[in-house]
Amino acid sequence: MKIGFLINPVAGMGGKVALKGTDGEDILRRAIELGAVPAANSRAEIALALFREAASDHRFYAPAGEMGGKLLSENGLKPEIVFDPAEKTTADDTKRAVSLMLEAGVEAIVFAGGDGTARDVCSVAGEKIPVIGIPAGVKIHSAVYAKRPKDAGMLVKNLLQGKVKRYVLAEVMDLDEDAFRNNAVRAELYGYMKVPDDREFMQDRKSGSSGSDTNETLDIAAFTVNGMIEDEIYLIGSGSTTNAIFQTLGKEGTLLGVDAVVNRELAGKDLMESEIKKLLLDHPKEKRHLVITVIGGQGHIFGRGNQQLSPDVIRMIPRENIMIIANSSKMSALFGKTLIADTGDPELDEELKGYFPVVTGFGKKIMAKVG
Amino acid sequence: MNGLTRMKKFHQARWNEPIIYELSEPGQRGVLVPGPCCECASKEEILETLPEHMVRKDLANLPEIAQLQLVRHYNHLSQENLGVDGNIDIGQGTCTMKYSPKVHERLAGSPKMLHMHPLQPAKTAQGVLEIMYKTGELFKAISGLDVFSVQPGGGSHGVLALASVVRAYWRDKGEEQKRDEIITTLFSHPADAAVPIVKGYKVTIIQPDSEGYPDIEAFKAALSDRTAAIFFTNPEDTGIFNVRIKEFTKLAHEKGVLCCYDQANANGLLGITRTAEADFDMSFFNLHKTFSAPHGCGGPATGMVAARKELRPYMPVPLVEYCPEKGYYLDFDLPKSCGKIKSFWGVIPVVLKAYSWIMTLGADGLREVSRVAILNNNYCMKKILAIKGASMSFPNHPSRIEQVRYSWEKLKKDTGFGTADVQRCIADFGTHYWSSHEPFVIPEPFTIEPSESYSKKDIDDYCAVLEEISRMCYEEPEAVEHAPSNSTVHHIDHDYFDDPAKYSITWRSYNRKYKGYFEPK
What mean pLDDT is predicted for residues B391-420? Predict the structure, then answer.
């Protein structure tokens, strides 16, 4: 197997600055636990120790030096060097490395970094090949990362031994820097990457599980499609949960965008706000539906990755026709918290407060409070 | 020598025992099946009387094995086992593991029971019918309800029976299509959410508030004229009894909604509170749980349905009735019935055992069972909460009924070891421990239910094991990492349990899914 291996050596730098003033914010707790000092190389080493033995029969591709080549060589793996970066590495080096790895035909990429690194990898690799993220940054909002470096190591080992059987799309999130400067924590959805479907290593597995997220997402999609009423319009998006609806319909949906469906056919793809409004006006209010999901670890239903759904658009749809769908594991992770509507219009946010049923399976809903 | 020292010397038996089919040798026989008795016709003549479609064309796929090899096989398996009769089984919370009196096996194994046939005429089955009928009479006092059926073969089957009665009721009222939703709570048994979906219902789950009670505002938001019924477990799987339960049934009844009470685990309620007092219309009780019959490893068991007399027309058929002229009889004359839930009458040996248990204890004895179960649980809770790293769900709600859902969240934070690690370790002490079923919202959960059967010493010994494992997590992490050392199975790949394409619970499905899988490629 050809594996790309990449370390963002500056991941974790600036951690202290980033944490300043946001102490106690729930969102950063995990980053603190992971350590706010630059430690990408040592974290990657923890992971490497676990898959080193399984790695011998495989070929590794890495940038030279601190970006991965050095660590692999020190551990007796002779990587193919894709390029030699300057001493001070940047985001462009990450992108360049991924692109050269893809050219070399790697089948998976293992990378160590934070949310910024995940964004850079995603911008080039997208959903083309599976990735495994070793958490090494301060900001870890992206679901593409394993829980801990050693979990990442176990995942890579499983991958190398051919034990990974299923993949699932995981969110790439990063903090909105403008909002961050104003002392608000605001993670944006930037895309999805393909990761092993393994709850044990990818999430804090509480105990047992009731099947894979992939199967559950398809259950939810089947239930949604099953309930679609003739001649009514369904706005769908964005996110991987809502996108599964298109898989069920046998259509190509937009992963990071809003599509429209009428009579189980695509009525509009990757729509802008103005296009959405125009489409909605063709249907009486009670025949307009909106299918959205819960984005990220904070429980946003509006205002993250679906800004096309402007306050005007949301007001055009009856509240009871807003259908929220989400995996039960996501709802479990949000246990005890409220969902958040951040539409940009405080008045509308206020109106959206209260209870919504969230579809978590075929015929199964959970009452969730928007606070 | 205390219990802990004793348990540390435990070692699980390991036989690497093949599956019975793999032991099969063509031509081996364990029993010689007798031919037809002398006054009957020959085998061929009997076969001729059967309709052609009922006569097998090929031999049944049964293992062929002699008696000694068979006895050895099952003895090996029994040694590789844990259970109430072999260890302190308080770690299987929500399941009410209690002692099943051995005398009941004698009763259930007597020829009077063994030789019954479900199709023999009622007038020749008066004794069994009397037991079924009188068990119902006893439950009039236990539940405060009026009509009963012992047909369902287990707890989830009891939920299915309730959902079936709900459907029959709304069909009769002409609202079957409109009333298509069921409401349950997050900490009700997961079957209350899962099973009605099988009956075509949509199920809405209410989450708890910070005290652990179902959020009544969420309940109000979920209730509508589409709601067919509510399915509530009480006490919930957290061990918290919902003291506001009547507010929920009142709101539901105002919308005409049927109220179904999951009393599968009523072990902390006997003689203290009843279904009728909580204003529920129907409930079911697990006779194999609270009422002492063995669980039978997922059946055969009994989820006994109880309902108000107004719901009698919708109950499963037949109902067991009595009148002086006919004696005990089976009443099939329920045209609006939800139909049959199970073949024949139900799992009668389980009913017999529960009947015997209730009759042995009497009303005072039942009350004593619940009082001791609650006392045991609260004693055990105090001991567990004193263990380093342990805490409980919803600490704002300090009292619990018959079980507690605990958490190793702190242990995990301090040591990196969580509930799965404790579960691995505990096998070294000759006992076992269960974490939680859905919902997976309590971090690193474990659920302990010391029913009335266990002595103070049993509880002390079990808590000492948990304390020892906690100490190991803090002080001897390497020992924990390598545990279990005295068991036979070490680290299990959970992937197989989670994947419908991989798990198999029968030989037939195993063959289908794994034929050739383990052979060299």
Answer: 92
